[in-house]
Write a structure and sequence with these properties.
- The chain is α/β, with parallel strands linked by helices and 350 residues long.
- The chain has a single domain (2-348), classed as TIM Barrel (Alpha-Beta Barrel).
- It has 11 helices and 14 strands.
- Helix 3 (88-96) packs parallel to helix 4.
- Bound molecules: (4S)-2,6-dioxohexahydropyrimidine-4-carboxylic acid and zinc ion (ZN).
- Residues 18, 20, 44, 252, 254 line the site of zinc ion.
Length: 350
């Protein structure tokens, strides 16, 4: 990484370790937004129907590559959606062929398209044991879905009642705590060895729960896990900018058309693919940690996943305040870009 007095910063090209690309018209519209800045991304499997088998992941990968505009390069890293019917042998074969880089655990009912997720963890134990043997990571959506548990407590309760017992009962299982949102998430990630890591989104470094609820409800700031209190946001900023190998970027960029966000029962998700890198440069500069941005976006993720770092680079430069369009227009309808709520002076060059 090189940092110059003229306020430019050249990093190894970043990767996004948690991304929703969707399918069809939405895929076509959002893929270039990621491929413009990122070399690779871990692709979430929560399509309708979900990407459950190796064959489905291979077909989805082909649809992603077919949607990539001429002249852009991008490597989708595929995942399988863990269900109670997932076959250990199918997972092992999809891993052995190099197709699949992780398996995603959605507790049933936790979030968008999670109905096929896991209710009874004993039913998935054989798959998890196979994954521990072959070194294939489990990416967890870490929230319990129990009706009695307050939505702001669901991550902390998941850690204590699901994640910790699960890790103890399947020793050697590599786990990524996806999109952590709490001090408890940061502390638990730090308590593990090199078999445990956590991704942090861009938006959880910017918003707390007041941004969603004060002065009128802001549906474009609503995502899952929902943003928490300010002290949690500060813990996430400290973790992301620490340079510690266990923390890396997973944007969870999750596009939904405005009609479904601005709705009586609005969908969860912030669409951050377009402006994540400039916003992260702003955050890391504020924290006096520009020299650690590359670890977060480009080095720690490949190290955990056992992949080489990217050989190409990306340059960020500081200048005029950026004017992004408010919306990305797609054939499925407009998608509102994440608005950090303050001017951002960084842009990606080229
Ligand atoms: O906010 C979210 N949106 N969180 C998730 O876990 C899923 C995602 C989506 O797919 O829309
Ligand atoms: Zn997600």
């Amino acid at each position: 990484m090189t940092e110059n007095p003229d306020q430019s910063l050249t990093l190894r090209r970043p990767d996004d370790w948690h991304l929703h690309l969707r399918d069809g018209a939405m895929l076509k519209a959002v893929l270039p937004e990621t491929a413009r800045h990122f070399a690779r991304a871990i692709i979430m499997p929560n399509l309708v129907p979900p990407v459950v088998t190796g064959d489905q992941a291979a077909a989805y990968r082909e649809r992603i590559l077919a949607a990539l505009p001429e002249g852009m390069s991008f490597t989708p890293l595929m995942t399988l959606y863990l269900t109670e019917g997932t076959e250990p042998a199918d997972v092992a074969a999809a891993h052995a062929s190099g197709l699949v880089k992780a398996v995603k655990l959605y507790p049933a009912g936790a979030t968008t398209n999670s109905n096929s997720g896991v209710r009874d963890f004993d039913k998935v134990r054989p798959v998890l044991e196979t994954m521990a043997e072959i070194g294939l990571p489990l990416c967890t959506h870490g929230e319990v879905t129990t009706a009695e548990v307050d939505i702001f407590d669901r991550e902390a309760v998941f850690i204590d009642t699901v994640l910790d017992p699960l890790r103890r009962s399947v020793p050697g299982l590599r786990v990524v705590m996806e999109h952590i949102t709490t001090e408890q998430g940061v502390a638990y990630a730090r308590s593990g060895g090199d078999d445990l890591a956590a991704t942090i989104t861009t938006h959880h470094l910017i918003i707390n729960r007041n941004h969603i609820l004060v002065g009128g409800i802001k549906p474009h700031y609503y995502c899952l896990p929902v943003a928490k209190r300010e002290h949690h946001r500060l813990a996430l900023r400290a973790a992301a900018t620490s340079g510690e190998a266990r923390f890396f970027l997973g944007t969870d960029s999750a596009p939904h058309v405005d009609a479904l966000k601005e709705h009586a029962c609005g969908c969860a998700g912030c669409f951050t693919a377009t402006n994540t890198m400039p916003i992260l440069a702003h955050v890391f500069e504020e924290e006096g940690a520009l020299d650690r941005l590359e670890a977060f976006t480009s080095l720690n993720g490949p190290a955990f996943y056992g992949l080489p770092v990217n050989e190409t680079s990306l340059t960020l430069r500081k200048g005029e305040a950026q004017n992004w369009p408010d919306k990305l227009l797609t054939e499925a309808g407009p998608v509102t870009l994440f608005n950090p709520g303050f001017p951002v002076h960084w842009h990606v060059e080229g």
